[in-house]
Amino acid sequence: MPRGVRGGLHLGVGVASLVSEGASATLRPMRESDLLQVVSIERDWAPKPWSVDTFRNELGIPFSRALVAHDAGAPGVVGGYLVRWLVAGEVHLLSLAVERHRRRHGIGSFLLDVLLAEARAESADLVTLEVEASNVSALRLYESRGFARARTRRNYYGGGRDAVVMDRRLGCRDVS
Ligand SMILES: CC(C)(COP(=O)(O)OP(=O)(O)OC[C@H]1O[C@@H](n2cnc3c(N)ncnc32)[C@H](O)[C@@H]1OP(=O)(O)O)[C@@H](O)C(=O)NCCC(=O)NCCS
């Protein structure tokens, strides 16, 4: 069965389902009760991980949206998450990660597809993000979803680690 978003995507409520070769997942808004699992995933990959308080703060910001993917039928088990802002017609992706043992099952693309669908529904013009230049898996994921490399920010992460700024413009002719 091909990968993709299946079932209902109810924008604003944030329920969508994914069925892929190796996973079946559902997406919903992040809750306070998810934060320990989210931070555990975050600590497993991020050089400077966000804390529980940082994620909690996002839950209270009106222009921030935080989503989690969980196994269908196990809404308490977080498999991945994203946080994005919508400001002045632009969506900025602040954070996206999938739990290590659940990667390569389409969950990252699922989260990104929902981000793009919501951005279109909210009439955003542009989606932007920064990704570490050495993060091949994330670069490929974003390129697979139509993001283009806009520029490089030298030493953005410190220690000589550069960021690639990527964007995807959303227009009225964008139908993918
Ligand atoms: C990047 C990340 C979110 C991808 O999540 P995922 O659920 O594994 O991604 P998907 O299964 O949807 O993969 C989609 C595409 O991304 C690319 N990709 C993902 N992982 C890859 C890897 N390890 N190597 C090469 N390409 C990869 C592939 O093009 C893949 O498509 P394919 O499986 O058909 O080849 C995940 O690896 C992760 O959490 N990494 C740590 C956190 C991180 O780097 N976040 C991004 C910060 S900007």
On the 0 to 100 scale, the average pLDDT is 88
Gyration radius over CA? 15 Å
CATH H-level homologous superfamily name of one domain:
Gcn5-related N-acetyltransferase (GNAT)
| Unreliable stretches covering 5 or more consecutive residues | 5-13
Biggest sheet overview: 9 strands, mixed
Give the overall shape.
Answer: globular
CATH architecture of one domain: 3-Layer(aba) Sandwich
Span between N and C termini? 19 Å
Determine the structural class based on helices, strands and strand pairing.
alpha+beta
Strand content: 35-45%
Q: In DSSP terms, counting alpha (H) and pi (I) runs of 4 or more, how many helices? A: 4
Q: What topology, given as strand order, has the largest sheet?
A: 1-2-3-4-5-6-7-9-8
Helical proportion?
10-25%
How is the CATH topology of one domain named?
Aminopeptidase
Q: Which cofactor or ligand species appear?
A: coenzyme A
What would CATH call the class of one domain?
A: Alpha Beta
Q: Order of helices and strands, N to C?
A: EEEHHEEEHEHEE
Could you give the count of β-strands? 9
